[in-house]
Every structure is written in C-alpha cells, then in structure tokens.
Specification:
Elements (H helix, E strand, L loop, with lengths): L1 H13 L3 H4 L4 E9 L2 E7 L7 H11 L4 E7 L13 H5 L3 E6 L4 E6 L16
Parallel strand pairs: 2-3
Antiparallel strand pairs: 1-2, 3-4, 4-5
Length: about 120
Amino acid sequence: MKRLGTIVLAVIVTGCGPAAFGPRVEVIETRNLAPGFFAVVVDLPEGADTDQLLQLAKRACGSEQRCRSAIWTDGSQAPSGLPMDLTALTTIALTYNANHHTGYEKVAWDCRRFPQPSSDACLAH
C-alpha cells in the first residue's frame, strides 16, 4: 500500500495525469475571421484528451481582451471568413468566448461528439 501511495503522490506532484500520456491535439491552422474572432483547425487523434481543445481555443485568443474562438477538426468545413455557412456552423467542435474586462468566459461544446456533464455547456445544433 505504501508503494501505491508513493506512485499516486508522484503523479500529483509532477502534474502528470491521463492527458500527459495520451496523444496531443495539434493546431493545423488558425484563421482570423474578424477582429478578435479566430477559427482554429486541429488534428484530433483518436484517444486524445479533448480538454486540450479548450486550451487551444484560449491560446488562439492570445492577449485579446475580448475574444471569440471556435475549433474545427476538419479544415474543409472551417470558414475562411464571415458570415459562416451552415456546414461551418454545424461542425464546430467547441466555442470559447471571453471578455477579460468583465471576467466573462463561456465555453460551449458539440455535445454529440464531446458529451458534457451539463447541457448548459452544449452548442445548440
């Protein structure tokens, strides 16, 4: 039992968790659709921790005080400008909206592909 406790403690201290051992989600392209609005196309390998999508959406915003980003897993369906067509709208994997002036932050997932504990976190498709 002492050995198991040591292993668990090592995992906590080093910050290694399941995501550290799974495949990485890679950004293929980031498109600036409008000021403060980014489309991010990613390669999502089988078995990857999908929480990485949120981190990539936040990273796309950089230092923007007001930002919106959306993630697509298929570049052929991601928009290259606005307005978005129906295919682009219905194939969004995740959206991230933030206003750092007010502290507002909202994340919405395509829950058909990425189930969430609450329907409040789902895109309306």
